[in-house]
Write the structure tokens for this entry.
Amino acid sequence: MKNLLPLLLSVTFLALAMSGCGPSLFPTATPILPTATPMPPTATPLPATDTVCADGCDFTTIQAAMDDPGTTDDAIVEITDPIHTEAGIVVSKDVTIRGLGAETTIVQAHETPDEAPDRVFLIEEGANVTLESMTIRHGKPSAQDEHGGGIYNYGTLTLESCVVTNNMANGGGGICNSGVLALINSSVSDNTAHGTVPRGIECGNGGGIKCGNGMLTLVNSTISGNQAGSKGRARGGGVFIGCQCTALFTNSTISGNRATGKSGRTYRHGQGLGGGVYINGTLQLVNCTISDNQATHEGGGVYVRSRLDYVNTIIANNTGRNGNCVVSYTDSSGGKDTIGTNSNNLVGDGSCGSDHSGDPMLGPLADNGGATWTHALLPDSPAIDAVSVVSCTLPTDQRGAPRPIVQTSPETPCDIGAFEWQP
């Protein structure tokens, strides 16, 4: 699925120029929010060039496949074991590593998360890698202060139809990104950024994903049940977006994450911030749902320390001081700590200047069809048909269900959030 990456990056690169962290290539430009961005049809999978399993395959370990001179760029390495246990896999080639499905193929660092000797995958700088159709779990970095429990990415990494779950680290419990990272039809769940290391190196940021720098793209994906906290800064229970990171989330759900700082230490900008997302870089949200997240301090749903541009998005039912969406500091000149593009959004308590407020009437996070879990809109939800025709820009919702632009007619309004109610 590497052919999807140029489509994702073309939007994200333009956003990077307006990140607000460091010099801007286009300082006067309006933030780019995608219009109609249909995903290309799923291609027929190519046959594997190499296989990995305990017995009867080309290799018994993924690392052996990566190190073999015969494994060239564009190789497709297929894992056929139902549960494959291997830690510290270093990938430095342009390859696809795929399983037989997230429910069928599990790649784990250890049988027990606490006893893992290392994270699962390290993607090196310069590598262009796809991880596809697998569950990645039970990783923990070998050094106490390191980040990226399941995956650390320095290269260009696409996760498609993957689940990253039950990993832990000082920061970036599930994934830490310092390169270009895209998640498509994937889930990051139940990971922990604990921050329980000696004073001075504790982090606790990004329970699910920490993007310190680079680019992060979510498409049709769910970040749920992750935790940032314990004794660290506890910022971004679901996702932490650092100053040098530019992020774009489309048709995605952030749900049930927690930023739960408990330490007595007082940080300059507080702790327990951004139960769903903490933004210290730049984030653009298009038709997303952020719900049921918690922060012990401010911003149960979203905490903005830099810039948020959002459209057609629900932020509601989150728990934290001062609202679902909190801006750390408002700069009237349009500089740091601002809400930029803002249209057709529903924020439960009306924070962050939303057009709509009140109860969006969401169902629980559940399997409502599609590759990832969503919050369904209940039949009387005020989010239904609340987006004017001109702003209905996505042909499908997170599940792949059609929005009215293709389902009925281009004159029919569509819904706020990642889920499109089907009449």
Q: What stands out?
A: The domain at 2-24+56-407 is CATH 2.160.20 (Pectate Lyase C-like). Residues 5-16 form the longest helix (12 residues). DSSP finds three helices and 36 strands in the chain. The longest strand covers residues 239-250.
